[in-house]
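JOB MANIFEST
job_type = single_chain_structure
chain_count = 1
residues = 337
[input]
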Amino acid sequence: MITVTAYDTERAYCQDIINFTELEPIFAAWPTVWVQVREPEKPEVLKLITEAFNIHQLALEDVLTKHQRAKIEQYGDIFFIIVHELTNGTEVSSKQLCFFLAKNYVVSFQFEELDSLKRISERIGNNNGMIRSHGADYLASAILDAVIDTYFPVLESLGEKLEDLEDEVMADPSRQIIAEIHMTKRQLLTARRTVWPMREVLNALLRDASHNFSTEVRLHLRDCYDHAVELIDLIETYRELGADLMDVYLSSISNRMNEVMKVLTIIATVFAPPTLIAAIYGMNFNSATSPYNMPETNWYYGYPIVLLIMFLGSLAVLAFLWWKGWLGVMAKRSTKE
């Protein structure tokens, strides 16, 4: 439930603890201490944490409330920060991370396993980078940077998905594609709700809390802020692409419907003369009653003559459509498809 990591430039210490009385000698022996708390909603753990670190009740309520908006609060010399790690499974989702930053320690709270914190623990244990040569302020910036790094693979995956959807929309638009476009747009909205507040957190750290960070750490915070701005630009670009895909889908459906209607119209036009002639000669007026009642029914070659007229009428309509260039346009579009 509780893991304590302590380090200096030469050594590193990591141990799971149960009793908070074990923290006092660790704080006395190490310059930088990181306390990771899992399942912070348990009452006995909360009581011990509150007493050990003098955590404000309002901050504790925020820790216990899942799906909080990313934010930063200051309680005396302690900063309370809430951020979210993005994961990309069947859908894009976020995992909440809360941590307190003091002069020589960081206390983090997590309800689920977070890949970003695992990477930070490995860096401390393997002495990778500069993390062990700096204090708690650098540790906080490293945590923020690791959280931001989880956003890029998610957005790259969404970008590739949009490219595939664009190809499918142009080739064969279907109802399944429109459902996938809607799902991708919802995932982008989830990413946007996560990244936008993150940028405000970093901006507040640079603007209001810069005196609590060294010059080197402020450079890393600015780099994190630049990454957050880059992520926002990517998200807005992908959201516009998703909206454009909807327009392309609707245009493709409309064009296909127009092509179908053109084909049906041409067929109906070609068969209009035979239909007209068949309708005329389908009238049952007795020629014996009056010489004006269909005298053609008594012709010896009346039937083949009428069939020939029907054929010539359809041929004349086709010739007219070809002369207008409408059949040529249809043939070219069919070849392109």
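[summary]
The CA atoms of residues 145 and 178 lie 35 Å apart.
The radius of gyration is 37 Å.
exit_status = 0
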